[in-house]
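Example 3.2
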Amino acid sequence: MNKLEQKTKMVGEMGLERYAGCFKHRRFNEEKTRGRRKPQDSYGYMELVDPFVFDIDQLLNAKASRRLDDKTQVFPSPDNPHVRTRSIHTREVVAFSLIAADIMGLNTRLVEAIALGHDIGHAPYGHLGEEVISEVTGKTFRHEIFSVVVAQYIEKQEAGLNLSFETLEGILHHSKGGSVLTVDSNLPLEYALVMFADKIAYTFSDVEDIIRYGLKGIDEFPPVLVNMGANQRERVTRCLGALVAESAEAGEISFFKSKVAGQFEELRQWLYRNVYFRLDHSHNRQVLKKIYEFLGEFPYFEGCDPAILLALLTDKEANRLSEMFLKQPVITVGDLHSFGIMEIAPYVRDRQIDFEQPRLEWGVEKD
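Structure, written as tokens:
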């Protein structure tokens, strides 16, 4: 049996055809959107375009999305082009979200918009950047909140992307700020779907990259990995199928109770204990702290919150600054001319941007 036949057999065994369109009645209706924070320019076509299609366009063209090419998924600044960056991870989340949403009859344009924007608030070096910013500021930095802040108050020279409320709220709810997953049944189903697609995407992709880097061999992972499939595609397919089936039977987006969900969670928690929490980040931690001090003292950035600037840096820029600290006694404005924050700094200067507050009350008040 070849690989195509194996996949066809696996999908057939899941019996997913019985669940096709199971949430058509719960699909978020784009006509019921709470709208945008500011009046939207027409551009001559806005009246003809689904609001979430416009959000997709805005996110695809955002500077924050471009920066994801040089931001960490798990391994900073990978030399191997096949190792995931944050932008590659984002594309995988989009793909998995769309597959499940299309099967279940949910709003595919809304899930695509949420998935595209879910990680635009990540700091350099992945979750390490979150930890360092929290440590040096004494405030809690969370990328899901900062993603909403970036979209509303930093992009487009502080004007913001003016995304639909549901896209922003979905971005905010894609992560719970820890390893424990929960679902709020009062929110549109599309939000929880992206949350699970995100976890499925990074879990199996990280396994591939861990093996690719030689940190662990396939035989060092728990047996549930192979039980879920012989390769990433089989494992993802099995999890998406189980997610669809369990959700359809529960009447809500759910991926907690099935055998496959249990295996998946066992693997995910194993990765936290045996890989994520054990990576040696000591050098990059010191680099980020040194950069934070530098950004707070460099004359060009006077009036700018160094935590905001640090969060907007890419891994590549952080690495370059680290090299400058070692090789140059003095860093000039000219040395930083190609850094993205040089372009952004004028629009965050002398502004109170709170990275702890998503500020979505404008949409809630429309109830």
